[in-house]
Specification:
It is a single chain. By secondary structure, the protein is of the alpha/beta class. It has a domain of 95 residues. The protein has 4 helices and 8 strands; from the N terminus they run E-H-E-H-E-E-H-E-E-E-H-E. It has a 4-stranded parallel sheet. It is globular, with a radius of gyration of 14 Å. Bound molecules: iron/sulfur cluster. Iron/sulfur cluster binds next to helix 2.
Amino acid sequence: MYIVSACLLGRDCKYNGGNNANEAVIEFCRTHKYIEVCPESAAKLPCPRPPAEIVGSKVLNKFGKDLTLDFDRGAELSANTCLTMAEITGEPIEGAILKANSPSCGCGKIYDGTFTGTLVDGYGIFARRLRRMGIDIITEKETIPW
Ligand code: SF4
């Protein structure tokens, strides 16, 4: 079973109320078992919502509101949901396809906290948690290897 960022499947959970539908990811999910998650929705953040970025050890929205605890909670709830589904279905988690550059889902590159579209090396809060669980992660920008 694969973990997939819900916005890549066309769910309107992106901060601006839209989605990041990706045809390659949608096609992959037609033939593979998957669970879709949106950690920011799991944290019950509103949609639409102001954009947020990781700034040092915190997650702040563009107005400076500290959302660190919300992002941590959303990541934990989403990861627990995935583990529970894997246990219930007997389908091990084989990897994750997450939305690039997001402060939750980004993998390898994330926005730098200046809200200027600048990328730096790093991982979103949910991606960090999956990495600690030993799960292979790619983003929609990569060729799906599975
Ligand atoms: S938290 Fe992840 S799944 Fe949710 S909208 Fe952001 S990038 Fe997409």
